[in-house]
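Design a sequence for this backbone.
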């Protein structure tokens, strides 16, 4: 009997593994039972018991009326305390954007075609020309030290250039005089500017992100579009958008700013129907110089001049700077940056109704308008800045670690430094991949709101780690500020990226998983909607359907997780090559584990999961790291699977898998019912911990890629502004690296001569001694001296006068003159190149 029960359990497990329908499973088992009648030796009693068990399970499950009354109805009634409630603002956030790859990750069985069919990101010729022309030029014009330390503003020339060349109009369609660029081009522009000057990049990115331009394009009346968009495109109007205030930060929906519908005087006319606004906003980027203020407020109509409803909800309006009652112009000083940022206040500012974005039709829809527009902003501007910082750190920390020597050895060769360099390279690879994949989705017409949150949070968090690590390697060279320091302003900018457009803590704990589950879980939203359906009969029917599909889903994930756990997912058929297939398989495995853990948390915690942010934050980490792995696989394939990039891919994927494992184990350990946590652990990780993270050999390979201008490093850092000027903050480091690489062989010869005692290790005139005894030629001697000068130039830091922060170049360390160039042809002949 037990053997037969075991056999049917196996058939059932196979059926749920492959997610067969209930009916198909029932038919398979029934066929098996019929077949057993012809198996010699099976007793009638055994058959009868098996048929009874089968009927007890299959009949209620297959007949909706029966299961509805027996199972769904009592559950429907009993779940009032478990079902999460959804507030109006949450509902609007939920309705914004599309479900995309996160839906597949929640499914436990992702269809990789969703990603593999995305085209490779590609700039048009016009976009590339913009990057090579005006963007390069603006980078050259952006002296970040002058901007942030001397002028506290961009130069007048840079402001004019930005307006003239359409930098503020990248998202405005061509028909309105804008550039009409793709998300990719927009991101590449911000990234390149960000690699030069954070203040310039933020100045450019804000009008192209969430603000009047975007809101007008999506919701503006034709009249508003025709008037404002060309003005914004030409830079005649500078926009800003005010949502945040002293009493409404992350919870912006709680803003106390009001608009009262009333009659007032406007431009000499009395009795104009409009709105009297009172607001107090702070931290508003570009506000001090803005001519057009976008304002979010709550609209009330106490005299019922528009409708019977008094509280009309969050509404957005455009207010001209010179309107009576507007106070604008003061500045904040955010993290030592010098982009314009400040408070804006309005006292009894009367505006006509036509200034409401979208006109009367869009009154009260402000929150969903903001949510919809925030989506792609989150995915473009900040990730571009994060990528800029991580590419800069990878390239110039790699070069620096090669040219900077301690104990006669490049610091990048020490294992301790190598370990940190590997983290920089691996994380930079993850950041670049995360950025590019979401851009492909945006350019394919998707608005993936949860993924945007993931990309924002992940790129900012990883950027923080990369820049911190780079600071460690640069030591005093990164700390002492001045025109020669390319790193420290970026380091100071980190908290800005972390805080804006959805502060990271809240984005991780509330948005990614909270919204992610409700929107992307295959059944949860259906169950919640059915539960809240005012027609209770209909609601019960929908609930029953969703619930049973959900139960099948849970069983399937139990079987799938366990099977993939004991086989390490080796038997799965997934796409991929030698370098990638392991990660494709682990993604499927972790997707199933994630779906099962999510459902377990929902079952145990119900609606209170919303408040259990330590649990939801960990689940967000699982989802986010799965997104990042997918993005890296996609990026690797888009690049043509270059062999040299494999160490980067492996390091970053192994790191992300370890993050997933840590997060899942954290959920299991902290599950309010410990038995469920242990059960999950047994099902998901039956053979202890499968992911060990990147090993030392992988780290070594990644670090080595960064220590010289390898093809992998060039690909990794593509798109940043790389100066070739040996007196530039970064140009000097690359210049020194070039020399160091040229003298590598001669240096080796010198080291050998020291080992054999031909040269003294204590000599202060090593090169001269080596030349005197013909260990090096005159030409090699010259080259070594030039290298010495280039390295000295690369490691120098700025000095200031005692009384003020005016740069004083020390007399011994004058402006670096590129040594009269060594004839590279001759070097090759002498075997130095
Ligand atoms: C340089 C800069 C530029 C900006 N530009 C603009 C702009 O142009 N327009 C505009 O409207 N706003 C702008 N902002 C405002 C920005 O969006 C807010 O700073 C942000 O929303 C956070 O609000 P807060 O600073 O008041 O922090 P708070 O809301 O007080 O948050 C403090 C901390 O608490 C966390 N937190 C809050 N609630 C939760 C929760 N439920 N769960 C977990 N954690 C939570 C947050 O994650 C954060 O870490 C800008 C801010 C800065 C610093």
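Sequence:
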């Amino acid at each position: 009997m037990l053997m037969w029960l075991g056999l049917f359990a196996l058939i059932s497990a196979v059926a749920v593994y492959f997610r067969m329908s209930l009916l198909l499973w029932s038919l398979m088992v029934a066929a098996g039972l019929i077949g057993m009648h012809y198996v010699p030796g099976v007793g009638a009693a055994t058959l009868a018991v098996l048929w009874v068990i089968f009927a007890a399970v299959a009949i209620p499950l297959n007949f909706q009326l029966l299961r509805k009354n027996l199972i769904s109805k009592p559950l429907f009634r009993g779940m009032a305390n478990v079902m999460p409630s959804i507030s109006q603002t949450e509902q609007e956030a939920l309705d914004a954007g599309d479900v995309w790859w996160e839906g597949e990750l929640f499914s436990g069985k992702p269809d990789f075609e969703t990603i593999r069919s995305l085209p490779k990101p590609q700039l048009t010729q016009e976009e590339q020309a913009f990057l090579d022309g005006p963007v390069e030029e603006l980078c050259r014009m952006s002296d970040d030290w002058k901007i942030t330390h001397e002028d506290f503003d961009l130069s007048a020339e840079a402001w004019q250039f930005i307006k003239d060349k359409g930098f503020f109009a990248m998202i405005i369609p061509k028909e309105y005089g804008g550039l009409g660029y793709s998300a990719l081009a927009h991101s590449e522009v911000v990234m390149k500017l960000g690699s030069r000057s954070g203040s310039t990049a933020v100045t450019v990115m804000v009008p192209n992100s969430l603000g009047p331009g975007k809101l007008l394009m999506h919701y503006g009346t034709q009249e508003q579009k025709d008037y404002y968009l060309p003005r914004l495109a030409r830079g005649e109007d500078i926009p800003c958008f005010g949502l945040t205030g002293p009493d409404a930060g992350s919870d912006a929906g709680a803003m106390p700013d009001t608009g009262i519908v009333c009659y007032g005087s406007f431009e000499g006319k009395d009795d104009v129907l409009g709105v009297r606004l009172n607001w107090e906003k702070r931290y508003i980027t570009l506000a001090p110089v803005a001519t057009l203020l976008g304002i979010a407020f709550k609209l009330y109509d106490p005299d019922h001049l528009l409708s019977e409803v008094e509280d009309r909800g969050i509404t957005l309006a455009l207010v001209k700077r010179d309107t009576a009652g507007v106070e604008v112009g003061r500045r904040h000083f955010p993290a030592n940056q010098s982009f314009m940022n400040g408070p804006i206040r309005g006292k009894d500012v009367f505006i006509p109704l036509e200034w409401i974005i979208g006109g009367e039709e869009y009154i009260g829809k402000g929150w969903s308008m903001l949510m919809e527009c925030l989506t792609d902003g989150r995915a473009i501007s900040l990730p571009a800045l994060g990528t800029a910082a991580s590419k800069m750190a990878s390239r110039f920390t790699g070069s620096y670690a090669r040219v900077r020597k301690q104990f006669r050895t490049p610091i990048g060769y020490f294992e301790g430094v190598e370990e940190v360099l590997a983290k920089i390279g691996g994380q930079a690879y993850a950041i670049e991949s995360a950025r590019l994949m979401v851009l492909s989705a945006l350019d394919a017409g998707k608005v993936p709101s949860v993924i945007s949150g993931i990309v924002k949070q992940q790129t900012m968090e990883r950027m923080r780690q990369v820049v911190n690590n780079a600071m460690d390697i640069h030591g005093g060279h990164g700390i002492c500020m001045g025109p020669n320091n390319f790193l420290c302003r970026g380091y100071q900018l980190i908290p800005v990226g972390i805080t804006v457009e959805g502060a990271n803590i809240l984005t991780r704990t509330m948005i990614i998983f909270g919204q992610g589950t409700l929107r992307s879980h295959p059944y949860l939203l259906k169950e919640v909607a059915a539960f809240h359906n005012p027609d209770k009969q209909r609601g019960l029917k929908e609930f029953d359907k969703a619930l049973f599909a959900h139960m099948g889903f849970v069983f399937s994930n139990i079987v799938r997780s366990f099977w993939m756990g004991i086989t390490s997912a080796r038997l799965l058929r997934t796409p991929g090559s030698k370098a990638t297939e392991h990660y494709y398989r682990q993604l499927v495995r972790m997707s199933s584990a994630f779906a099962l853990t999510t459902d377990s948390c929902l079952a145990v915690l119900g609606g209170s999961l919303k408040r259990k942010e330590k649990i939801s934050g960990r689940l967000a980490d699982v989802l986010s790291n799965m997104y990042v792995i997918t993005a890296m696989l996609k990026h690797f394939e888009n690049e043509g699977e270059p062999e040299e990039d494999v160490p980067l891919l492996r390091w970053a994927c192994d790191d992300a898998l370890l993050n997933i494992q840590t997060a899942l184990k954290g959920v299991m350990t902290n599950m309010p019912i410990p038995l469920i946590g242990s059960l999950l652990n047994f099902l998901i990780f039956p053979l202890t911990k499968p992911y060990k993270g990147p090993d030392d050999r992988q780290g070594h390979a990644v670090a080595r890629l960064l220590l010289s201008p390898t093809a992998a490093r060039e690909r990794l850092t593509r798109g940043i502004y790389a100066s070739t000027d040996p007196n530039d903050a970064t140009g000097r480091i690359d210049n020194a690296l070039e020399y160091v690489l040229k003298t590598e062989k001669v240096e080796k010869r010198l080291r050998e001569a020291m080992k054999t005692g031909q040269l003294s290790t204590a000599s202060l005139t090593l090169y001269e001694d080596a030349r005197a005894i013909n260990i090096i030629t005159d030409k090699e001697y010259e080259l070594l001296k030039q290298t010495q000068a280039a390295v000295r130039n690369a490691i120098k830091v700025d000095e200031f006068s005692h009384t003020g922060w005016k740069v004083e170049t020390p007399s011994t360390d004058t402006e670096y003159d590129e040594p009269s160039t060594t004839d590279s042809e001759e070097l090759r002949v002498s075997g130095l190149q």
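The longest strand covers residues 269-285.
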